[in-house]
Amino acid sequence: MSENREGFLAGSRLERVLRSGRFAVTAELNPPDSADPQEVYDAALVLSQVCDAINATDASGAHCHMSSVAICALLTRAGYEPVYQVSCRDRNRIAIQGDLLGAAAMGVRNVLCLTGDDVTAGDQPEAKRVFDFDSIQLLRTARIMRDRGVFLSGRKLTTPPRFFLGAASNPFVPPYDWRPLRLAKKVEAGANFIQTQYCFDIARFREFMRRVRDLGLHEKVYILVGVGPLRSEKAAEFMRTKVPGVHIPDAIVERLRKTPKPRKREEGKRICIEIIQQVREIEGVAGIHVMAYRQEELVAEIVEEAGLLPRPLRVGAADERRREHPRKWPRR
Amino acid sequence: MSLGAWLRNHPAALERAYLFTHRLFERLDPLFARMGYERAERLVRWPEELGKKLVFDCRMCGQCILHSTGMTCPMTCPKNLRNGPCGGVRGNGHCEVKPEMRCVWVEAYERSRAMPRFGDEIALIQPPVNRRLQGTSAWINMLTGVDARTPRGWEMGSQA
Ligand code: SF4
Questions:
Q1: Do A137 and B128 touch (CB under 8 A)?
Q2: Closest chain A residue to B131 measured between Cα atoms?
């Protein structure tokens, strides 16, 4: 691995926080359906005060939004710390490698390599699915670009990108036995950190982490557990039937159903905080990743009430960089 | 149940059949070399396609890794994944994209557990697909070695 003088792969804030052994918090930004950068900044402002890095999703659920690479470029310009999500669904290997270089040039240091939800999950199911790479091939290619300074073809890069590389894991869907081994494969391919799918099933997650520890993976990769608030039992029902890969146990749906309407939102938040507190106790968990789709205003409350402030954590060098929120983007 | 499905649920037997065919083709290699691989390919391709379509619903990617994936064709995964399941698998083990179909990788993993010889190869990292081989005979490609050829950068990755 190519590490710099201080021993960092990328030196991103996320990497520094994790390497220092502190509990990390990342959060997902709701990408705008807009050409106005201000919408990105408004969404980022709220999140940036309660997390260490902000994920820019790549048309998740196969719904088109502002591209992740552009969101990341806007975020780095303002001194924010993005996690650039790259999915294999829409672009072939040529486009992906070009975007990785472009993102690095724009100051992106964290990359999350994903398979991607299928086109049929979105509102344009007629689209062509690409999947030229799978997530593991993508991950390894990104690592080759960083560590070997070449494209997949072997052609040399004049300056290789510096990336802290991430991958996803979903311990909550079959084949359960294989999930820890698939994680091992991702570590072998180059994953430095993992962000999991939504965790609502603590028992299942404990079992997964037990296997992960048996394999010694928790010492090789930082695992951030996906969490998020549910608005109501209807939202839970929608998520577990319509959003690919989300598993929510009946007990949680039931708990929301029994809660009187005006308190449902609060209850959803409580559940989320309880889950955070429980996963924090599990050996090998390095942080959380908050996904609060259309409830971004709740992220701050959740992080605060879970006792995870102040954020972002101070990490030295990365803090020296200018951080100020552009109130108004100059319009022409 | 179709013949193919029945056979696929006997992975240990299929594994033996694979090994047998593998040896057979190695034996035939000098013959193929003499007649020229291009001609051999024309000869081998159609029976290969016929047989593998029937048994594996093969998509003729030309770089067969069946024995490393539980004798289950990874190209039948709608996302063409070669390294394992996506995160979209449904709670009942069915595919995210085709709810009526069991996830290819759920089946691949189960079957690999019943394969004493190649079962553990499911943990291998598979390189990106060489799309130029689509439609050609994987057996001939195995003999000529083109199926195992990966881009130079990829090879450098294994030393990293
Ligand atoms: S659920 Fe299984 S078969 Fe379906 S796309 Fe994902 S990995 Fe492929």
A1: yes
A2: A132
Question: How far lies B128's CA from each of A109, A174, A241, B60, B69, in Å?
Answer: 24, 24, 32, 15, 15
Domains of chain A: 3-321 (3.20.20.220)
What tokens were used for A275? 């889950």
- Rounded CA-CA distance A84/A186 in Å is 17
Q: Is there a contact between A25 and A52 (Cβ–Cβ < 8 Å)?
A: yes
- What is the A3 CA–ligand 1 centroid distance (Å)? 36
Is the separation of the CB atoms in A100 and A111 below 8 Å? yes
B105/A175 Cα distance (integer angstroms): 8
Nearest Cα neighbor of B109 from B95, B99, B123, B96 is B123
> CA of A32: how far to CAs of A38, A68, A330, in Å?
10, 10, 18
**Biggest alpha carbon distance in chain B?**
53
* pLDDT digits 0-9 by tens, A98-138: 999 999 999 999 999 999 999 999 999 999 999 999 999 99
Q: Using alpha carbons only, give the angle B121, B126, B131 rounded to the nearest 5 degrees.
A: 135
Q: Which two tokens stand for residue A307?
A: 């006792």
> Which residues are bridge partners to A150 per DSSP?
A156
Cα distances from A22 to residues A49, A286, B64, in angstroms, run 17, 7, 45
From the CB of residue A239, how many other CB atoms can be counted at a distance below 10 Å? Answer: 19
The tokens describing A86, both together, are 């790259």
Verify whether ligand 1 is closer than 6 Å to residue B86 (CB atom): yes
Judge if pTM exceeds 0.90: yes
**Nearest CA residue ID for atom 8, ligand 1:** B77
CB B65 within 8 A of CB B58: no
| Single-letter residue type at A109 | R
Domain spans, chain B: 3-124+131-147
Q: Which atom of ligand 1 is nearest to the CA of B79?
A: 5
Please indicate whether residue B97, judged by its CB atom, sits closer than 6 Å to ligand 1: yes
DSSP state of A5: T
Give this complex's ipTM. 0.95
Q: How far is residue B48's CA from residue B22's CA, in Å, rounded to a whole number?
A: 13
Residue type, B151: P
Tens digits of per-residue pLDDT, A134-178? 999 999 999 999 999 999 999 999 999 999 999 999 999 999 999
Protein residue whose Cα sits closest to atom 7 of ligand 1:
B85
Q: Three-state DSSP class for B60?
A: coil
Question: Helix %, strand %, coil % for chain B, to 5?
Answer: 60, 0, 40
The string of pLDDT tens digits covering residues A235-258 is 999 999 999 999 999 999 999 999
CB within 8 Å of chain A, chain B residues 77-96: 78-93, 96
Radius of gyration of the CA atoms of chain A, in A: 19
User: What part of B 17-76 touches A (C-beta under 8 Å)?
Assistant: none
